[in-house]
Protein 1
Amino acid sequence: MIRPIIHDPLFLGQQSKPATEADRQIITDLMDTLRANLDRCVGMAANMIGEKKRIIVFCNGLMQMVMVNPQITAKSGEYETEEGCLSLAGVRKTKRYRKITVSYQDQAFHSRMGTFEGFTAQIIQHEVDHCDGILI
């Protein structure tokens, strides 16, 4: 189900709680909402649809990917960039890393580890920040 986007910075500034298998519907709703906003969005965190759970979805090339309970475990190549956000007006400067390693669970709640670079790494960092209550 496509859900409305949350714009309240007080809600978005709260830390998300770990997701469990009981949160499968949130994953489906988050994917549906991302697909409905692909013309202006490349990633979303569950708090953007009103759910304080550590779930993110994002575009990885032509496919959409789900990460449940993502944790960035390594990062390198710091740089400064500007980002926008579907939940917030305008763009802001922020620091990101060119290469990251992420520990997460997939949509079936299997443990995974992945290394990501470039724009995909930037998207993941933005969405993990959402999970941590960090707004750009």
Protein 2
Amino acid sequence: MKLISWNLNGIRAVAKKGLLDKIAEMNPDVICFQETKAQDDQVAEVLNELNGYHFYSNSAVKKGYSGTAIVSKTEPLKVFPDLGVEIHDQEGRVLTAEYDDFYLVTVYTPNSKHDLSRLDNRQEFDAELLKFLKNLEKTKPVLVCGDLNVAHKEIDLARPKENYNKSAGFMQEEIDGMNNYQNAGLIDTFRHFHPDKTDMYSWWSLRGGARERNVGWRIDYFLASESFLPKIKNADILMDMHGSDHCPVSIEL
């Protein structure tokens, strides 16, 4: 079973660049999207032409902003949106699908912003998400994927020294949030399989030819309950797949 996660930075924009062909090429059993930047009916308009898949979306109250979606060959047992915390449930940032053996949660973590004005809100989101995931884990193992908007270690971004405690995505508070996930038994699958792999990133700034020069950040993840790790065969970053400022990340079960 191949699972993929991709921040599209606008599903309608990537649709114009051949999204359905790209999905066919990758041929996932499940693909999760973040930052659809579309309402549910607009997501449906794009995905209605995708044969052989069921799809579900969670859009923000604010139009053209945030949003998540899950596209699955197998119909999940059930699908439900949000965390159940009103302040964090206005932006369509969380969508969960339940399968026989696991929960799959796709997440678009709030960006702390250039001026760090949203750092507190983001820390609260991290804490609420962890509570939510641990609650699900009481029933069955959890896979959580998406744009978590943090590079965890120096190895996860091209310029750690220039960005540490200066830039959103590599603030100590954000790193602590990721530490908390891991300390609670949610394992970074890519690092589990590739502990020392360098120059593997999932997001690049649109400025200054960052992607061509591979000046990137690894901020998109698949985290897994420790008990589920034996079921996971591999984890990868599909750096050659274009269409967004992010590239997809994947795991195989």
Protein 3
Amino acid sequence: MHKKNETRIKRATKTRKKLRELAVPALSVHKTGQHLYAQIFSGDGTKTLASASTLDKGLVAEGSSRTNQEAAKAVGEAIAKKAKEAGIETVGFDRSGYLYHGKVKALADAAREAGLKF
């Protein structure tokens, strides 16, 4: 594994440990080269309560990029909407060790604007 990915995983492990101690639902973000994913897990981390990604139909316009900040905003709004439908208002933010910048920040800001608290 590359050093960059190892350090990201170390950061993610610390965050996840703290979220488990707090026992709150966690909004987890994962990025790949082609897509962006967001899931809300239960407080103990055993169940997925809501999920959204750039793979969802109608979320990202056909022919547009699925990896830019506009796509991240769409995923953030979608996950917040699904969380509210599931009765979730407050979550902990698990950025999976990624820096709070760019797409991760855009997703988080869009989820906050749509009414999710973290």
Protein 4
Amino acid sequence: MKQYGVIFDMDGVLVDSYQAHFESWRRMLKQKGRELTEPEFAETFGRTSRDIIQHFFGDTMSDEEIARWDEEKEAEYREIITEDFPAMEGASELIAALAEGGFRLAIGSSGPKENVQTVLDNLPSAHLITASVNGQEVTRGKPAPDVFLRAAEKLELPPAQCAVLEDALAGLDAAHAAGMAAAAITGTAPRDALAEKAEIVVDSLRELTPATIQQLIEDRAAVVH
């Protein structure tokens, strides 16, 4: 029997973290005398914190300053989500159904390892996720495929036997660059933009089933080959 895997992006897929990330950026940058607008934040959502800092301030900051700002921002974020953990609707149920169906499960996130651990510590059913990859384990962040390829290695599965669940356009590009099927959940990017990049777009994880995801994997493999 062929084995399949599902790799979950974390922010916006397992954790309804958009507002928490925006608030943590807003708090950190306010201390630096810089206001961040929501449209500016939305433009960069899904990228690593260091990428975002370089995007806005890269020409004026040293690597040491970028690293320090990154640590401050992520500490703010973890404090916010730990106070009232914002699990995505249907996430725990889908994880449980996939595990029962024999899927191997992983997290593939651009975030730091501490953020991934915070989710694993607080999300119901997270004990069923057997592997994780964070942004500190790869040299290139999304839209490069490195995070998802490393996750497939940890699951001991070929990329073609994996599906990625994503909410960000960069993540969908990374999934396809890795040779994987991609399912998109709305909330971060416009639906029409997601539809151009994903095999399926859903408004809730409750719309996905193990059978649906297996079919996505098989259909994409048939097209690619």
